[in-house]
TrEMBL record:
One of its GO terms (cellular component) is cytoplasm. This is Ribosomal RNA large subunit methyltransferase H. S-adenosyl-L-methionine binds at residues 72, 103, 122-127. It is found in: Cytoplasm.
Length: 156
């Protein structure tokens, strides 16, 4: 099974790219993780709906071949690290590649959200999108370490 973070936006700051690269490198061979950047739509005089529809088209092209779609959304489910690990373990048993979508500053198109298998949120706090990428990379690595009984994650 493969995992991917498909994120709308421009090139991330070097510190985000370096952090993501570190967690991508740590992932086990049987569960590789990648980050795919999708170009954000140029705002101009376009409405929010027009922007999101254009980004949806680009996201759908990047999501080809993924069986499972998880969209990060501020109204999504709150998951603990252990709950994320349980989801990940279930997805691994079910098979099929999984993509996590991080939208632009304007969010994710409503039609794409409706197609998602699940909506989750990383925090009740508003996070910069680049930081959300890095945080998701770390949490996926942490969830994997829980599944593999690796001492990276410690529960009280």
């Amino acid at each position: 099974m493969k995992l991917a973070i498909v994120a709308v936006g421009n090139k991330s700051p070097a510190w985000v790219s370096a952090g993501c690269a570190e967690y991508l490198k740590r992932m086990p061979r049987e569960l590789p993780l990648s980050v795919i950047e999708v170009k954000a739509e140029v705002r101009g005089a376009k409405s929010r709906e027009q922007l999101l529809a254009a980004e949806r088209t680009r996201l759908l092209a990047a999501l080809q071949g993924f069986r499972r779609l998880v969209v990060l959304d501020e109204r999504g489910s709150d998951l603990s690290t252990l709950e994320l690990a349980q989801r990940l373990a279930g997805w691994m048993q079910a098979g099929g590649d999984t993509a996590f979508v991080i939208g632009s500053a304007d969010g994710v198109d409503a039609a794409l959200k409706q197609q998602a298998d699940e909506l989750i949120r990383l925090s009740r706090l508003t996070l910069p999108h680049a930081l959300a990428r890095l945080l998701l990379c770390e949490q996926l690595y942490r969830a994997c370490s829980v599944i593999r009984n690796h001492p990276y994650h410690r529960e009280d």
